[in-house]
Each structure stands twice: as C-alpha cells, then as structure tokens.
Design goal:
single chain, 415 residues, alpha/beta, D-Maltodextrin-Binding Protein, domain 2, 2 domains, seven-stranded mixed sheet, four-stranded mixed sheet, 19 helices, 47% helix, globular, binds beta-D-glucopyranose
Length: 415
C-alpha cells in the first residue's frame, strides 16, 4: 500500500487523520502520578486523543498520591538531560521550574485561553508573561465522602458541624464500622489538617495558609485546629500508616469505613466502581466549610527537548488538546473534578460535580475560593514542605497542640 492509502486506512479506522510523517514520528514522554483506577482512566483519554492525532505516547507514571515520588523522578530526569516532553506540575511550582530555564512557552496553543479560564487560574499558567502550563480541571479539596448504607444503618445524617461530626463518628464506632478511613502519608495528613483550618472560616484559612500571618498561625484558634485533628485521629484505624489514598477510598466504597476526608479525585474511584452519588455514597463539604472551596488545579508543563527553546508540534498539540472542550468534559467525568475551561456543559456531570461547580461559582464571586496548601497551590515547595513536616510529626506522635503551633509558626518562615 502507498503511504496515502495507509494513512487513509488509518483515518477510516479512527486513527491518525491528516498527520504528517514528522508528527507521526514524534514521541511524547509524559510524566504524571495518575495511577489509581479513576486516575488511569482519566489520563487514558489524553493518551487516546494524542495517539489518534498520530503521536506516540510514552507513559512515565510514577505511583504515589499527590506527586511526591513523581517530583523526585522528574528532578532526576531533568538533571540527567532526559527531561520528559511534559510533566504534571502545578501551582507555584510552575514558576519554580520556569525559573530554572528549562520550560518552553506554549502561547501559540493558547490563543483563546485567557477568555476561557478564571483569572486566578489563568495567572498560575503563566511565567515571564508566557503561557507555560496547560490546566486540566478543578478539584475541590474540602470534601468528605460517606458510605450511605453505613450512615443509614446508624440512623445518621450528614454532619455540618464538628459536634455533629463526632456524634456520627461515635455511632459508627458503636456499630462496629471504622468511622474514618485514612492513609497515614504526609500529604493525606495535611489534607485533613487544612480542611480543619478551613472550617474556621475562609478568612482564617487565607490569613494562616496563604498570607502566613504569624498572629493567625499562633492564635488560640489554631491550637483548637490541632485539638480537633487529634480528636478526628482517634476515629482512624491503626493500619493507616503508609496506606494509599485510594485504598482508604476503597474502605468507604465497600462499607468497611464510614467516611474519608479527600479531594474529589476520590469520586473517580467511586465512579470506577460503578457507585452512584446519593444512592451508594454521599459527597458533602467538610463540616463548617459549605461556603468555601479549596481548589487544586492539575496542569502539565512542557520541557525543552534537545536544547530547543521552542515547543515541538507534539507539545503544542498536547497543550491544545488538554484545553479542548471535549477533552475537558471527558477527563473530569472520569477524574471526579470539574472542567477548568469556562463554558463547558455540566449536563453529563453527577450531583457532586454539579454541586462542586455551583459552589465554585459562588465562592469565586462571594469569597472563599482559596488555593489548597496540601495540593501545592498555596505556597512554594519549601514552605509547604516545612508545614507538612510539622503536621505529620504531630499526627504521628503525642505532641501537644501548643508546641505544634509554635513549630508551625517557625515552619511558615521557611523560604
Ligand atoms: C492531584 C490529583 C490526584 C491526587 C491523588 C492530587 O495532588 O492534584 O490529580 O488525583 O493528588 O494522586
């Protein structure tokens, strides 16, 4: 068969329509940490899309929730001169990588992005006046996921305050159900802790974790935050050390545990297990945070290939695809998030997705839309890391809340 005929046949089969030989040869190495059931399905949409466009997808998946292991792998690759084509990097870390002079601008793929992104997020995708990152979706972090049958069994309603929460947890415990499923990894500890900070009000959260205001960090209210976290911990099982987040989600899915504090990537696991919100499980804002929204926006940055300062055709196509309406919709349906691109229809989304969208719009307008510290959106890596150490140490010892607060105030000064 002639080249044209081969391409025609591939096109008819839904593969490689109108691609050039140069494109067909380009291989895209993509580093990410999306390895759970729901996550793999979501990133699979991108892989299929790029393959259809004629690119070769070289998957560089590094297991380990929230990316700690992936970041170590990335540094090794870049230092040894083997930077991937794209990598999952988000928040202030985008700027930190851009400062290293190793990224390429992707402006020509982003001509309509400004009009289609919330300004807070559009800004994060920039470095040095150029687009250098492509955003996937918006995850809300301040959720609790409940097993509906477990709540029904003990006759409990979704709690909206901490006293109600502890009452429900006690009922679950009495019924022999593990009240809280958790994985004892630093980022999971921090996710819970920032939820409790947020329950003190979005202003308190902002002053403490965005502005790093020393007065707020050392306040009696912050001592109370650590006390609440200590109390929640007593409802977790001893086996939580090192447990992956999706295994904790599985405990809620199969009814071993009553609930989990986790961002809405957990919904991707429920969806992957064919569970329905409202029937099998319930999503609800962390007690005291119904009006607030901690956001976590995943994005890819693009690395210089073979010393070239310009993006390759494949990198530009990748960026464009990530922000395309059709991809934005399908990715989030699998991932548990909502599209970051404005104006994408929410019709196909379930009640949790619709609630996330409505709450996001309200929070953007009326305040309470805050970057998640635990998910790399609020502070540079060094500061976030120092605060994580304080919280993890507290949760894995018998340290008192007052000395944890002192350590926190010190950690917040880390640059
Ligand atoms: C990422 C999510 C991911 C989660 C667990 C978060 O930091 O933003 O995309 O699903 O970690 O791996």
């Amino acid at each position: 068969m002639k080249f044209r005929a081969i391409m025609g046949a591939l096109c008819a089969a839904g593969l490689m329509c109108g691609v050039t030989a140069a494109q067909a040869a380009e291989s895209l190495e993509v580093l990410h940490w999306w390895t759970s059931g729901g996550e793999s399905k979501a990133v699979g949409v991108l892989k299929d899309d790029m393959t259809k466009q004629g690119y070769t997808w070289k998957d560089f998946a590094v297991a380990g929730g929230a990316g700690a292991a992936a970041m170590t792998a990335l540094k090794t690759q870049v230092i040894s001169g083997n930077a991937p084509s794209a990598a999952q990097i988000k928040g202030p870390l985008i700027q930190e990588w851009a400062d290293q002079g190793v990224l390429v601008p992707i402006d020509s793929a982003a001509t309509d992005w400004k009009a289609n992104l919330p300004p807070q997020i559009d800004k994060i995708m920039h470095a040095g006046g150029h687009y250098v990152a492509a955003p996937f979706s918006v995850h809300r972090v301040n959720w609790v996921w409940y097993n509906k049958a477990a709540l029904d069994k003990v006759g409990a309603k979704v709690p909206t305050t901490w006293p109600e929460f502890f009452a429900v947890a006690d009922k679950l415990k009495a019924a022999g159900i593990q009240p809280v499923a958790a994985g004892g990894q630093p980022w999971q500890d921090l996710t819970l802790w920032e939820d409790v900070v947020l329950s003190q009000g979005a202003d308190f959260y902002k002053k403490a974790l965005v502005d790093l205001d020393q007065k707020t960090l050392t306040s009696q209210q912050m001592v109370g935050v650590f006390d609440t976290v200590r109390k929640i911990e007593t409802y977790m099982d001893n086996g939580r050390t090192g447990r992956d987040w999706n295994l904790a989600t599985a405990m809620v899915i199969n009814g071993k545990a009553g609930m989990q504090f986790m961002g809405d990537w957990a919904k991707g696991e429920f969806a992957n297990a064919n569970k329905q919100p409202g029937t099998d499980y319930i999503c609800a804002a962390v007690p005291g945070t119904a009006k607030s929204y901690t956001f976590n926006v995943d994005s890819f940055v693009f690395f210089q290939q073979k010393g070239q300062k310009e993006a390759t055709p494949g990198q530009l196509a990748l960026a464009k695809t990530i922000m395309s309406p059709a991809f934005q919709e399908q990715f989030s349906l699998y991932k548990g998030s909502i599209p970051v691109r404005l104006g994408v229809s929410m019709d196909k989304f379930d009640s949790c997705g619709k609630q996330s969208y409505a709450d996001e719009q309200t929070a953007i307008k009326s305040g309470g839309y805050e970057p998640s510290l635990a998910h790399g959106m609020a502070q540079p890596d060094a500061t976030a890391g120092a605060i994580t150490d304080v919280v993890t140490k507290f949760m894995n010892s018998t340290q008192d809340s007052k000395s944890a607060v002192e350590a926190l105030a010190k950690a917040a000064k880390t640059k």
